[in-house]
Amino acid sequence: MEDIVESLFISTLDNERASCNVQDLRTGTDLMRYKGGGAMHPHSLQMLGGHFVIAANSTKPLLHVWPINGQEPMSNIRYVVPGKVNALALTPDGSFLVAGIQENIYVWHLNSGRLLNTLSRHFQAITCIRFTDNGEHFASAGKDGAVLVWNLTRATAPLGTGDSEENAPFYSFNDHGLAVTDVHIGHGGIKAFLYSVSLDRCCKVYDLSSGNMLLSVVFPVALHSVIVNKLETDVYVGTAEGQVLVFHMDRVPRMKEYHLEEQDTQGFIKHTKGTAVTCLALSANADQLISGGEDKLVCIWDISSRQLIKSLPQVGALSNLHLRLINSALFHPGPKQPKFFADNLKRMISPPDNNDCIELLITEEYTKNRPAKKWDIDTYYNLYDTVTAAQEVAANNDDDDVENEDMEDAAAATVSDEEMTPLDNEESEEEAIVVPAKKQRQKPKKKPVAVEKIVAPAAAVSDEEMAPLDKEESADEIILPLSKKQRQRRKKKAVAAAKIASKPETNNKSTPKAQKARQR
Question: How far is residue 517's CA from residue 8's CA, in Å, rounded to a whole number?
Answer without folding.
Answer: 123
